[in-house]
Amino acid sequence: MITRRDAVAEQADQPETQAGLPGHGVKVLAREIEVVLRDGAAVRLRPLRSDDEDRLLAFYLGLSPDSIFYRFFATLNETALRRWLRSVFETPAERGIGVVAVIGDPPRIVGHALYQRLTSDRAEVAFAVADDFQGRGLGTLMLGWLAEVASRQGIRQFEAVVLPENRRMLDLFREAGFPIEVHAAPGELRVVFPTELTEEALMRFEQREQIAARAALLPFLQPRGVAVIGASRQRGTIGGELFHNLLEFGFCGPVYPVNPNTSVVQSVVSYPTIEDVPGPVDLAVIAVPAEHVVEVARQCAQKGVRAIVVISAGFAEAGEAGRQRQEELLGVCRASGMRLIGPNCMGIANTDPSIRLNATFGPSPPTPGRVGFMTQSGALGLAIIEYANLLGIGLSTFVSVGNKADISGNDLLNYWEDDPATDVILLYLESFGNPRKFSRIARRVGRKKPIVAVKSGRSPAGMRGTSSHTGAMLAASDTTIDALFRQAGVIRTDTLEEMFDVAALLASQPLPRGPRVGIVTNGGGPGILCADAAEAEGLQVPVLSATTQERLRAFLPQQASVQNPVDLIASATAEHYRLAVEAVASDPNIDALIVIFVPPLAVQAEEVARAVLDAARAAQDRKPILTVFMSARGVPELLRATDLTLPSYSFPESAARALSQAVRYAEWRSIPLEAPSRPAGIDRDGALALTAEVLARGGGWLRPEEVQRLLTCYGIPLVEQRVVSHANAAGDAAQELGGEVALKAIAPGLVHKTDVGGVTLGLRGREAVIEEAIRMAHRLAEAGYQVEGYVVQKLAPPGVEVIVGAIEDPSFGPVVACGAGGVLAELLGDVSIRLAPLTARDAATMLRELRLFPLLAGYRGGPASDVPALEQVLLRTSALATDLPHAVELDLNPVRVYEHGILVLDARIRMEPIEPPSLLARR
């Protein structure tokens, strides 16, 4: 495919200068991103560079005659191609953009796409993909790259000319998710579609990413053959234990030891290099010194290995030399299409009986089960498997990702989403490579399977550079990560122990339908502790129905309590437990049960465990049942029956916490998905124009009149005000506004005006304002600030004060916050945050999370504030933060809320010339 202009130029034997783009001038518009193809291979998309001419010629000369004809509508020789390429490289950035897909070292171009402007807002687009890369999704990814860049350049529509028989190109446009129109013309089809990446298009890219991630992980977790490079004859070494574990666990394919120093490893014939292995190898596990790993990886690439797990340490975690070694290793993998787990990891495992892969060096193999586990910490990995085995929590798959040079938690979430062997996903995270991408994937996966995560590292260092109230409040803790997990439905636990407590429940029991818990115990004290813990965690301990109480009275002694908690007293038998659990489980006011057993002298824990299991089996309405066996001998093995497993805990508080996490997750999952809300009446183009003006002078805090312009673009009501340059003009403005006014100073570097006397309220009359403006200038001069002007505002009536703000987090993107406002905003610390863009439900929930909310709702008979208007401010702030990533800090403080309507009394916005991340890269 090619534009008509290209075809005419080639036929006329004249250079065409309106297609493509040289490397100069594109840095701001486009950048390199790494993308994964449908089959799991990774390639790099980047702008065309001035040194690409020979590589691009080789690419086109390597295309088949059919591919050349579909691209150029003609058969071109090398001379014609050189002439056309010269025109591509001479095209200025404002006329057209080119992108290439590159693999290998030295780099090989495997795809080329470009667009050229037709008018100020229309452009033609054309593609070519290497024959061996066609059908793998590369064209769609290049289209997404071009569309995003074109949209930033003000191009609103793409057009393409396609030969009628080129069905594959038509499918490319349709599958990309753009709303296309196809028009017939003599001998050709014209395709027209918008450049804006719609939500549907982005969802299509996301679906392709999921398919690609699964394809990338198949050779790791379902390999046909495995080689251990560095396999050792000696047990007790990493290479020795790795090889032994693969054999001992019974891997269902061939396992090849690779060791140049011996011909036999643990009774198995060994090979000096991976290239000497006679059979195909999908997975190579590498345990050699770090300085040899890159060369071994090159040998794996020559062999055709599809996946490598690098156990060896001494890479990015070990300083600059290690980081460079890791980059070199990743380059080898990218050049060959191999994928990498690690380095500096402890291995992987898949307990599927048709696979039986244990490529770890730990002493205990994982117990088969239905929990997928990923850890960033190799040191924790060994302990995690042992602890899971101790608790009876079986793993479907285990992956230690180490330094995450390639395969990450996001890839694993995509794999586990449709893995029939995995019901629950556990993550131990030390860092996020791409948190916004994690959020989108987790939100989707969490609708099918619960995700439980421990995130270590709660440092606020990332926010230290902020100077707004919003930035200061978000710097106080890792609330941004909490917000990410909350929105994505991820169950966050503080410790690994709590993670496994939750996993034990989710892996064995149905989700609770509500927060109402019934407690059955043979000891009053543990029952009260359990009830207190449950209510502290947001659960309810309701009184049982009269029918259930009568049923319990029928077999329990007089001293027993039958309301809730149900205290069977110490003399309770196993039969009492069975009948009580059956009765409470059938109560319509109960959503889940916690059964507590404190061992008396007469009754054995095993008898009670058997009775509780029998009651659970007999229950017609399955509800989650948790047990607490407060016994020095631990949990009875009976609770892990083959047909039914009941989670058990050492203390009642642990059971209550685990249940509360499951209840919150079930509630999140029951809420229908909601698209982000975009209020009407937003002037995004006006806001972008203002942003361009501010960035042209280098960014910084917006001037008061610019703040007013920007808020007006987003329909955020600022109190009536005048911006003036001197004291007399301030007096005139006060007279024009009438009534009482507020006077605020404008001075370079002045952030918190109230702290240095830069705000005076309740002024009336021209002379009073002039006199105060002069005094204010003197006060600020003594404090080191030079007053350049004043803001005179009409004094607003009293109301409930809140703060609404946003920051552009370098990792998480735009974050929106609200809380108790005014000068005490940071002191009170009453804040709720979400990642933008917000849904209408997000805005409503944020306000209701605040301790301040009763004031807004009408505290002690007071008038209710206009909460819907405040929700609108949140949504409009979210839209502003999403549209304008250069707005790195925004404070609306205070926002005064009335019975009807709201007013922003003060606003500050800072813009910086940052490079916002690509939508495709984020996803």
UniProtKB/TrEMBL annotation:
InterPro entries in the record: Acyl-CoA_Synth/Transferase, Acyl_CoA_acyltransferase, ATP_grasp_subdomain_1, CoA-bd, GNAT_dom, Ligase_CoA_dom, NAD(P)-bd_dom_sf, Succ_CoA_lig_flav_dom
Ranges of residues in domain N-acetyltransferase: 43-200
Family annotation (PROSITE patterns): GNAT (PS51186)
EC number(s) given by UniProt: 2.3.1.-
GO molecular function: acetate-CoA ligase (ADP-forming) activity; acyltransferase activity, transferring groups other than amino-acyl groups; ATP binding
Name of a matching Pfam family: Ligase_CoA_2
Region described as Disordered: spans on this chain: 1-22
SUPFAM superfamilies cross-referenced by the UniProt entry: Acyl-CoA N-acyltransferases (Nat), Glutathione synthetase ATP-binding domain-like, NAD(P)-binding Rossmann-fold domains, Succinyl-CoA synthetase domains
Keywords: Acyltransferase, ATP-binding, Ligase, Nucleotide-binding, Transferase
Enzyme class label: transferase
Gene3D superfamilies to which the protein is assigned, alphabetical: 3.40.630.30, ATP-grasp fold, A domain (3.30.1490.20), ATP-grasp fold, B domain (3.30.470.20), NAD(P)-binding Rossmann-like Domain (3.40.50.720), Succinyl-CoA synthetase domains (3.40.50.261)
PANTHER family: 3-HYDROXYPROPIONATE--COA LIGASE [ADP-FORMING] (PTHR43334:SF1), ACETATE--COA LIGASE [ADP-FORMING] (PTHR43334)
Protein name: GNAT family N-acetyltransferase
Species per Swiss-Prot/TrEMBL record: Thermalbibacter longus
